[in-house]
């Protein structure tokens, strides 16, 4: 594993009336992925201006390619994808590479 980090910023829009059910599925996924060796942190936030939106900000050791090869293929992620298909309207993913931080030590985790 390299000393690189990759961050995912994922915005979800839940179907009307499905946000709490989706939140439970997302939290369950985070519980599973948090035991992965490359996992550093995850923060889930509600969008105060868009009540049906949730955002997750994940930090992982490695690169986008290593995440896609090693993490995205985990069986529990496939199960999660099947379960949330009926709970969300849309999802957008931004891939980020941290360059500097203030107020935390997330990028010093490796």
Question: What this model shows, in words?
Answer:
The longest helix has 15 residues, at 19-33. By secondary structure, the chain is α+β, with helices and mostly antiparallel strands. It has helices spanning 19-33, 64-70, 75-84; strands at 5-14, 39-46, 53-61, 88-96. Strand 2 (39-46) and strand 3 form a beta hairpin. It starts with a strand and ends in a 14-residue tail after the last strand. It contains three helices and four strands. The model has no long low-confidence stretch (mean pLDDT 93). Helices cover 29% and strands 33% of the residues. A four-stranded antiparallel beta sheet has the order 2-3-1-4, covered by helices on one side. The radius of gyration is 14 Å and the shape is globular.
Helix and strand layout, with pairings?
Elements: E1 5-14, H1 19-33, E2 39-46, E3 53-61, H2 64-70, H3 75-84, E4 88-96
Antiparallel strand pairs: 1-3, 1-4, 2-3
Helix pairs in contact: 1-3
Shape, principal axes of CA atoms: globular
Largest sheet: 4 strands, antiparallel
**Sequence of secondary-structure elements:** EHEEHHE
Average residue-wise pLDDT: 93
State the helicity in percent bands.
25-40%
Structural class: alpha+beta
The total strand number stands at 4
């Amino acid at each position: 594993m390299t000393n690189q980090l990759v961050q995912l910023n994922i915005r979800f829009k839940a179907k009307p009336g499905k946000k709490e059910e989706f939140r439970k599925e997302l939290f369950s996924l985070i519980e599973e992925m948090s035991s992965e060796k490359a996992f550093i942190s995850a923060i889930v936030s509600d969008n105060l201006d868009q009540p049906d939106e949730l955002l997750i900000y994940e930090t992982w050791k490695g690169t986008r390619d290593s995440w896609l090869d090693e993490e995205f293929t985990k069986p529990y992620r496939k199960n999660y994808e099947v379960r949330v298909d009926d709970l969300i309207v849309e999802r957008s993913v931004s891939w980020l590479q941290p360059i500097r931080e203030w107020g935390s030590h997330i990028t010093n985790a490796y």
